Amino acid sequence: MVARVRTLLAVTMVTLACAASACSHLGLAPSSLPPAGREPLEGFGAETTGGAGGRVITISEPTEDAVRAAFADAAASGNAIIRFAVTTPIRIGKKLPILGKPNLTIDGGGATLDGSAMKEGSAILDIRTNDVIVRDLRLRNGDDNLRVDGPEAYRVVVAHVSSTGAHDDGISIGYGAHDVTVQYSLVAGATRAIYCKYAGTDNISLHHNWLMKSAIRSPIISGAIVADVRNVIVEDWGEWGSRFEDGATGNVVGSLFALSPYARSIGGKPHAALRLKGAGAVYLSENAVRGAVEPLVAGTASAPIPAPKVTTLPIAEMEKVVRARAGCLPRDGVDAAYVKATSGWKVSETEPLRLAPGASGR
User: Fold this and answer.
1) N or C: which end of the chain has fewer CB within 10 A?
2) How far, in Å, CA of 332 to CA of 355, rounded?
3) Domain that holds residue 139
4) What is the pTM of this model?
């Protein structure tokens, strides 16, 4: 509780400072940013230490048993870095819980975990402890690909993760998880892109992410949650895009909502790019729409909702950065197929879009 109070005080001070200096946009050029993959951790989860300074556990065999053994080893003592030293995709049949002792970093190094064989209701990665960093990892074809769940899950950062083809949520943050950041990540082809809901869930930062070709929830913020959404591209939803609902509050700043004629033809609703449905105060500033998208709704807050500082670029510069940097880098053939596909694809609330290398993108 003390830690959360300190976080909220710091957040308020940063917001007041930004309001005083009108710093919603820093006006940086992409060349002024750190190299791709080295961007600082920002947002509500940024105070995490992960497993910095801890022992390194290396996964050197592309098997589920090797991954599961490494996770169990790390959970037993905490303060560890799990490092993948394999590039062959690893098929996962049962969820991988990240629980037990805190302070863990999962350094994927470009590894792929494929949940094609997982049962309904499972998640490839299921984070239920504090001070966790997940980075440079591909999660593919699970039911949920990544969950951050429960009140024990806080100060969590997900960075440069590609989450594709999830039958349910590409990324789920809920059931009391708080102080979570998802940054520079790619969510594509899920039936539901990013899900933030349920009592106690709070303080979520989503920035510099690319959400594409998912049916719904890009993202959904539901309930008494503060969410700061900045420099996000929401593109080609299969039905509806983003929503704040049932008392959710927060900011949507410097983000782009784009719907292609093809996506509209298969069910993407042009009026549903961003909805406020029974939401609390939501601040909207300097967002843009493109293609078939109708004008966004008006915000319901006249000033930003308090949130930690996040480097925020103008739309034209943000778009270049997010399209080049979001996801696990360098992109593999599957991630590239999602980016290139302009027609011939289909996604719905019950059927994900699961692409393979070389999938057509006309």
Assistant:
1) N
2) 12
3) 2-338
4) 0.92
| Omega before 261 within 30 of 0, i.e. cis | no
Read off the pLDDT of residues 140-163 as tens digits, 9 standing for 90 and up.
Answer: 999 999 999 999 999 999 999 999
| Distances from the Cα of 342 to the Cα of 4, 184, 236, 261, angstroms | 44, 22, 9, 10
Domain-embedded: residue 276: yes
Cα angle 337-188-250, degrees, rounded to a multiple of 5:
150
User: What's the one-letter identity of residue 159?
Assistant: A
Q: Which CATH number do you get for residue 279?
A: 2.160.20.10
